[in-house]
Amino acid sequence: MIAKTLVALSLASVALSQSGPYGQCGGQGWTGPTTCESGWTCTYSNPYYSQCLPGSNTTPTSSTTTTGGGSSTGVPGSAPTVPPSTAVGKLPALGWNSWNAYRGDINEAKILAAANQFISLGLKTVGYQYVNIDDCWAKMGRDTNTKRIVPDPNKFPNGISGLATQIHALGLKIGIYSDAGTATCAGFPGSLGFESVDAATWGEWGIDYLKYDNCNVPGNWSDTGSPPGGDWYNSNSAIRYRQMTAALAAQSRPIQYAICNWGNANVWDWGGRVGHSWRMSGDSSATWSYITSIINTNLAHISSTKFGAHNDMDMMEIGNGNLTIQEQRSHFAAWVFLKSPILLGTDLSKLTTAQLAIIKNTELLAFHQDATVGTPAAPFKAYSTAPTTSPPEYYSGASSKGTHVFIINTSSSSATKQFTLSSVPGLGTSGNFKLHDMWTGADVSGTYAASASFSVSVAAHDTAAYLITKA
Ligand SMILES: *[C@@H]1O[C@H](CO)[C@@H](O)[C@H](O)[C@H]1NC(C)=O
Ligand SMILES: *[C@@H]1O[C@H](CO)[C@@H](O)[C@H](O)[C@H]1NC(C)=O
Ligand SMILES: *[C@@H]1O[C@H](CO)[C@@H](O)[C@H](O)[C@H]1NC(C)=O
Question: CBM1 domain: which residues (predicted)?
Fold first, then answer.
């Protein structure tokens, strides 16, 4: 029923002033639409998130907070402290997720088509690995005897395990989705209180990756004020996610663990102790304003990203909406140089040659997946009188190949960008250098002294990318 509703609605045009199916429609800091399109109701989930859910007769309600801080029940003391698996998740994930492309309108054919496109489009060859199913894969109720979540047989006639077998046969990995609440954002069974049975089910099916969402959290799990000891690792939010870490660790196969609590409860302070990546905000949109704002959000917590622990700027919008090709290049480059997970979020069969060239750029992917340097690129002052912009425009970082500079033109017309080589952290103040354009794969002609200035014209909202080595 849900699937049919979604099909019908996805064909309808969505008024920009209203949120679409399952879209966000409220919450602290939310500046987008607060109403939903016809047939959907803006439903309170928690102080940070209200969402358009099916139906027109549910009244938005607010939860009552009965306990705060997590100390009253003594849960923190007994909550598991198991760290995330070190067998997976050292590098930021590279793959695809069904949500941005299809929302809840998913089935085995669509997921398998994406997996096959990893092969036919050459995405697997350049490192894309995870084929991830988002919300709406399950039946509404758990199995009454086993308490397991049951795949929707209409969408997944071979079950998730049958799909996993096919995806593994392609040499790829499969991801699943659940929620650290009583129900997922779309209302399917959540895993709070069922962590062990669900992790065991996924382990048995051959699941390699879990995205764990944050809808429908019971009021007694909310955080009020500072957590015990001032460490948000002991917050009720973190404990909900820690329970799943322990359940995943009990399985025989390693499962990469993507925390999706939208940047709540200072997740950047504890995400690396609980999972391999953590979302930093609400859902992405295919807009330049989303891209620039999530760059700023990431920069505020850039020191949290390292091997095994990654700020997650959310799934990719390349192929969706009206981003210019320059904006799509900046979108990819920023996720690369800040080492966010990169999960493609579109119908891969519709990607143009230019879009494929962006997401298959092996030099940018090599920076993202560098096995010897785990730190992201960071802003630097390009020359003594360089203006301050938001987000910053100049970034540098190291890889096993040398030093890299990334330059975003944040304004809406093309501009000449420049930097003094000695201003780039790590290059030093003497010697000569050569530059290599990571987008074109070509060397820049000539050499540059440390005291020299390099300049380049950057199109509006585009990002230039260079590797700099000693000449
Ligand atoms: C919330 O209530 C449930 C059900 O009584 C209980 O299992 C859980 O431990 C409570 N959570 C907290 C943080 O108190
Ligand atoms: C893209 O642009 C078209 C034409 O201006 C507009 O109708 C449409 O709503 C835009 N789509 C998005 C997702 O912004
Ligand atoms: C490109 O970005 C820079 C920095 O924001 C801006 O100053 C410049 O105006 C943009 N392009 C041009 C020529 O305006």
Answer: 17-53
